[in-house]
Specification:
about 170 residues, alpha+beta, three-stranded antiparallel beta sheet, 4 helices, globular
Length: about 170
């Protein structure tokens, strides 16, 4: 496991700020978009998580929801990573997640969701010599909604840096 900068910085980027716009890669275009296609071909990773947040509602009154596996097991998002070397300074390793259309559970909250890979898919996803989209693209789809659970949580999750504890995933 390795800690990386959040937001993919392609190796050809002129500066690191492009990563601020590349936290997610749309699964429908990940193999073709210049920002993601090299990473998709050569630098795939798994991003472990116990769950994720999504916001439902209109701007100004959005309610955060927490989504996790019903099993309680950790999940692995399909991810991409890159190394970027600035003209001066240390190399930055960065990553992003791949998203897809929402499954039936997620559609009630948001229209997109992370690609959650099953343990059986991990080896193929991570295989360094696997460059063929015909094996990788079929993995980019919503997971079965029956495997997920979701509930609304406190709006305190929106207050970045103020709290970082298990209470943020408690149902409201």
């Amino acid at each position: 496991m390795k800690v990386m900068h959040w937001g993919l910085i392609p190796s050809w980027a002129k500066d690191a700020t492009i990563g601020n716009k590349l936290a997610n890669a749309r699964g429908e275009t990940v193999a073709e978009k210049p920002s993601f296609r090299t990473a998709f071909k050569y630098h795939r990773c798994l991003i472990p998580a116990s769950g994720f947040y999504e916001w439902k509602g209109e701007k100004g009154s959005k309610q955060p929801w927490y989504i996790s596996l019903k099993s309680g097991n950790p999940m692995a998002f399909a991810g991409l990573w890159e190394k970027w070397q600035p003209t001066e300074g240390e190399t930055i390793e960065s990553c992003c997640i791949i998203t897809t259309d929402a499954n039936s559970l997620m559609q009630t909250i948001h229209d997109r969701m992370p690609v959650i890979l099953s343990p059986e898919q991990w080896a193929t996803w991570l295989a360094p010599l696997e460059h063929h989209s015909d094996k990788l693209i079929p993995m980019i789809h919503p997971c079965d909604s029956k495997s997920l659970q979701a509930w609304p949580v406190s709006r305190e999750v929106n207050r970045v840096g103020l709290r970082d504890d298990a209470g943020l995933i408690e149902p409201t």
